[in-house]
Amino acid sequence: MARKKIALIGAGNIGGTLAHLAAKKELGDIVLFDVAEGLPQGKALDLSQCGPVEGFDAKVTGTNDYADIAGADVIIVTAGVARKPGMSRDDLLGINLKVMKSVGEGIAANAPDAFVICITNPLDAMVWALREFSGLPHNKVVGMAGVLDSARFATFLAWEFGVSVKDVNAFVLGGHGDTMVPVTSYTTVSGIPVDDLVKMGRSSKEAIDAIVQRTRSGGGEIVGLLKTGSAFYAPATSAIAMAEAYLGDQKRILPCAVHVDGKYGLDGLYVGVPVVIGANGAEEVIEIALDDEAKQNFQVSVDAVKELLVACKAIDGSL
Ligand code: TXD
């Protein structure tokens, strides 16, 4: 069976890490695309030279020509600009919306059957715009945010409880912004709800509330430390888990930014919700019962995403 083809649009910090992870896991042959001359080609050559050491036969190539992504099975989009200290994700909208238009056209013309995972910020708006510009089916265009936000939440909880990260199943809903909704009532350690662990005296409400807040500002914390850009190891790792769920028809229930129409009281918005990811892409949105607080927080997050879409439409009248 011919190897799958993974196209990475954007060969920057996340793109290069995606390529390295995909090659090590031999998910398929990898094409790195970027508008910067030499960057994708240089990283592809460097990554290829990992092959003899790592023992992978995946071909890694770099290009500035969209024709080279033809027939891709999975496309992961990181093209655009990243945050610097003092910038919010929403500050990137003006520049990155134009980038999504060129990326969407490139995908439509060369790989319309791909499963597309968007990472570019502001994520909830960019994934919606990418779907509009590309014209691909809604179930084949998703956004990566919730897997990363849940991983940040799980890391902090594992540290707090002194347990293995393997046993923490964290749940984050909503947009990829300060309004995201870490849901403690659906977050467990080996099946034990976090709220019960607090009642058992293994943490406190104050400590858990502080972790919820640290999760919300998890991206900004790293931007502040790095000063030159934003997180890229965990974002790449999170997107690769989504790609594997698609390529392996794993039917995983993952928090992703997907097109929600009818459930959660939404009528056609991209926002972070639990979704089954399998060979048909986003196969089923799982509508969970939210307590009043989570419901209110989710609505705040939905309203914030809607404001971003208004801003997008004001910039590009074709949306
Ligand atoms: O959870 C999430 N979704 C977020 C997303 C987590 C972390 C980072 N988040 C966002 O991903 C971040 O705010 C950025 O918008 C993207 C990519 O972050 P990365 O750290 O990889 O940015 P880089 O290193 O600047 O790489 C971006 C590349 C760079 O090489 C540019 O030359 C290229 O994008 N670029 C383009 N490629 C193709 N087409 C166009 N038009 C283009 N413009 C820039």
TrEMBL record:
<keyword id="KW-0560">Oxidoreductase</keyword>
<feature type="binding site">
    <location>
        <position position="152"/>
    </location>
    <ligand>
        <name>substrate</name>
    </ligand>
</feature>
<comment type="function">
    <text>Catalyzes the reversible oxidation of malate to oxaloacetate.</text>
</comment>
<dbReference type="Pfam" id="PF00056">
    <property type="entry name" value="Ldh_1_N"/>
</dbReference>
<keyword id="KW-0816">Tricarboxylic acid cycle</keyword>
<feature type="binding site">
    <location>
        <begin position="10"/>
        <end position="15"/>
    </location>
    <ligand>
        <name>NAD(+)</name>
    </ligand>
</feature>
<feature type="binding site">
    <location>
        <begin position="119"/>
        <end position="121"/>
    </location>
    <ligand>
        <name>NAD(+)</name>
    </ligand>
</feature>
<keyword id="KW-0520">NAD</keyword>
<feature type="binding site">
    <location>
        <position position="96"/>
    </location>
    <ligand>
        <name>NAD(+)</name>
    </ligand>
</feature>
<dbReference type="GO" id="GO:0004459">
    <property type="term" value="F:L-lactate dehydrogenase (NAD+) activity"/>
</dbReference>
<feature type="domain" description="Lactate/malate dehydrogenase C-terminal">
    <location>
        <begin position="148"/>
        <end position="307"/>
    </location>
</feature>
<dbReference type="InterPro" id="IPR015955">
    <property type="entry name" value="Lactate_DH/Glyco_Ohase_4_C"/>
</dbReference>
<feature type="domain" description="Lactate/malate dehydrogenase N-terminal">
    <location>
        <begin position="5"/>
        <end position="143"/>
    </location>
</feature>
<dbReference type="InterPro" id="IPR036291">
    <property type="entry name" value="NAD(P)-bd_dom_sf"/>
</dbReference>
<dbReference type="GO" id="GO:0030060">
    <property type="term" value="F:L-malate dehydrogenase (NAD+) activity"/>
</dbReference>
<dbReference type="InterPro" id="IPR011275">
    <property type="entry name" value="Malate_DH_type3"/>
</dbReference>
<dbReference type="InterPro" id="IPR001557">
    <property type="entry name" value="L-lactate/malate_DH"/>
</dbReference>
<feature type="binding site">
    <location>
        <position position="34"/>
    </location>
    <ligand>
        <name>NAD(+)</name>
    </ligand>
</feature>
<feature type="binding site">
    <location>
        <position position="89"/>
    </location>
    <ligand>
        <name>substrate</name>
    </ligand>
</feature>
<feature type="binding site">
    <location>
        <position position="121"/>
    </location>
    <ligand>
        <name>substrate</name>
    </ligand>
</feature>
<feature type="binding site">
    <location>
        <position position="83"/>
    </location>
    <ligand>
        <name>substrate</name>
    </ligand>
</feature>
<dbReference type="InterPro" id="IPR022383">
    <property type="entry name" value="Lactate/malate_DH_C"/>
</dbReference>
<dbReference type="GO" id="GO:0006089">
    <property type="term" value="P:lactate metabolic process"/>
</dbReference>
<comment type="similarity">
    <text>Belongs to the LDH/MDH superfamily. MDH type 3 family.</text>
</comment>
<dbReference type="Pfam" id="PF02866">
    <property type="entry name" value="Ldh_1_C"/>
</dbReference>
<dbReference type="InterPro" id="IPR001236">
    <property type="entry name" value="Lactate/malate_DH_N"/>
</dbReference>
<dbReference type="GO" id="GO:0006099">
    <property type="term" value="P:tricarboxylic acid cycle"/>
</dbReference>
<feature type="active site" description="Proton acceptor">
    <location>
        <position position="176"/>
    </location>
</feature>
<protein>
    <recommendedName>
        <fullName>Malate dehydrogenase</fullName>
        <ecNumber>1.1.1.37</ecNumber>
    </recommendedName>
</protein>
